[in-house]
Amino acid sequence: MTDQAVTTIATEKVNLLDFDRQGLRDFFAQLGEKPYRAEQVMKWIYHRLEDNFENMTDVGKALRAKLEASCYVGPPKTLFDKGAADGTHKWLLGMDGGNAVEAVYIPEPTRGTLCVSSQVGCGLNCQFCSTATQGFNRNLSTSEVIGQMWVAAKYLGNVTHQNRRITNVVMMGMGEPLLNFDNVVKAMSLMRDDLGFGLASKRVTLSTAGMVPMIDKLSEVIDVSLAVSLHAANDELRTELVPLNKRYPIDELVGACRRWLERKPRTSITFEYTLMKGVNDQPEHARQLIKLMRRLPNCKVNLIPFNPFPGTRFERSGAETIRAFQTQLLNANVLTMLRRTRGDDIDAACGQLKGQVLDRTRRQAEFRKRLEEGASHAA
Ligand code: SF4
After folding, report:
1. Do 61 and 84 share a domain, yes or no?
2. Which atom of ligand 1 is nearest to the CA of 172?
3. Residue 3 lies in a domain
4. pLDDT score at 351
5. Residue 353 and residue 234 share a domain
6. Which of 42, 90, 105, 314 satisfies CB 3.0 to 4.6 Å to 195 for a cystine?
7. What CA–CA distance (Å, rounded) separates 41 from 50?
8. For residue 347, is pLDDT > 70?
9. Are 122 and 39 members of one domain?
10. Global confidence as pTM
11. Which pLDDT score, from 0 to 100, does residue 148 have?
12. Same domain, 207 and 119
């Protein structure tokens, strides 16, 4: 099956979670049904989180039978879920035979954020990222992306437009979302759609490692917020940490961000910066970041203390260093936030989403080899 293909089951029934509003209307037209019927069913799926046509009581019996015969509402299967003491909740969701991804819910006093994955694993190999050690298998379908939100919303008792437990979604889980462009855009349109989860544009954020041409394309097709995984403000260090920087260096990335801001003048972009001890946390790094942020007025920096994982060569910066780095930025009038580490007891912090990846890049094998070499060098 291609990445763009809708998810089907053995009987070739269609998964309705693969359709955005227009897709659903088209499908209903094929069934000989009026568009408003598609919208009626869409409300059942996303507002009432109903996956059983039998329970869609205002849908006529004949249509229910037609739907039963031709389609289904198929969110991913929860293989495992776990809550942390601070209210963070994590789901491991089965995508097919051997693959699974993670979604994480992070409650705060004024909002609840769901972090969603876009690929099984990731091919970009950022050096400080736990997902990267697992290699890459495939893109997720639209139903597999929006299905993560559907599962979390059902578990949390989310009611669209009334009792929003999920107020924000960030595409920051496993994978580079802009490398799964069509499926991610469709899923985000369902997050935004009034008949879907009905979230405002500033509450749906896509985070990219810097896929420059796709940033431009994204700004043309959907209204969402943008975050960029920066982690270093000089090309040499950024290429080491985020190898994609070799293809799209900082100048090109800043150019794409400036074009984004020109198209969406009332928005801002968040730049994520993971602080690693002795790597990118020194005063000179802060100075480079300040210089870069001067080219991007009204944008924000989100400082993230690194979350170590087994086998990584990086360490979290000390509390003093983090404070000094933040102060240096604030003193230069760069809007800077420090992300509190959440869900520590369930490995749900940023960069720690692991899932289960049938690796097609053989990166897991290389990673294991490196670990073994490291262990024998230490011995
Ligand atoms: S940080 Fe993001 S883009 Fe980089 S390897 Fe990890 S998941 Fe992929």
Report:
1. no
2. 2
3. no
4. 57
5. yes
6. 42
7. 9
8. no
9. no
10. 0.91
11. 98
12. yes
Amino acid, single-letter form, for residue 89: H
206 close to ligand 1 (CB < 6 Angstrom)? no
Q: Determine whether 39 is an active site residue.
A: no
Determine contact, residues 232/285, Cβ cutoff 8 Å. Answer: yes
Ligand 1 in contact with 209 (CB < 6 A)? yes
What is the spatial distance between Cα 342 and Cα 352, in angstroms, rounded to a whole number?
11
Q: Do 34 and 92 fall within a single domain?
A: no
Answer whether 229 contacts ligand 1 (Cβ < 6 A): yes
257 is catalytic: no
Q: Are residues 37 and 147 in the same domain?
A: no
CATH number at residue 54: 1.10.150.530
Determine the structural domain holding residue 272 and report its residue range: 77-369
Rounded to the nearest angstrom, the distance between the alpha carbon of 185 and the centre of ligand 1 is 18
- The torsion defined by the Cα of 115, 182, 10 and 25, in degrees rounded to 10, comes to 100
Q: Which atom of ligand 1 is nearest to the CA of 132?
A: 5
Q: What is the pLDDT of residues 5-40, one digit of tens each?
A: 455 444 589 999 999 999 999 999 999 999 999 999
Question: 50 with 139, same domain?
Answer: no
- State how many domains the chain has: 2
Of all protein residues, whose CA lies closest to atom 6 belonging to ligand 1? Answer: 129
Task: Give the chain's largest Cα–Cα span.
Answer: 71
Q: 163: which residues sit within 8 A by CB, 6+ positions away?
A: 157
Nearest residue to 102 (alpha-carbon basis) of 302, 346, 315: 346
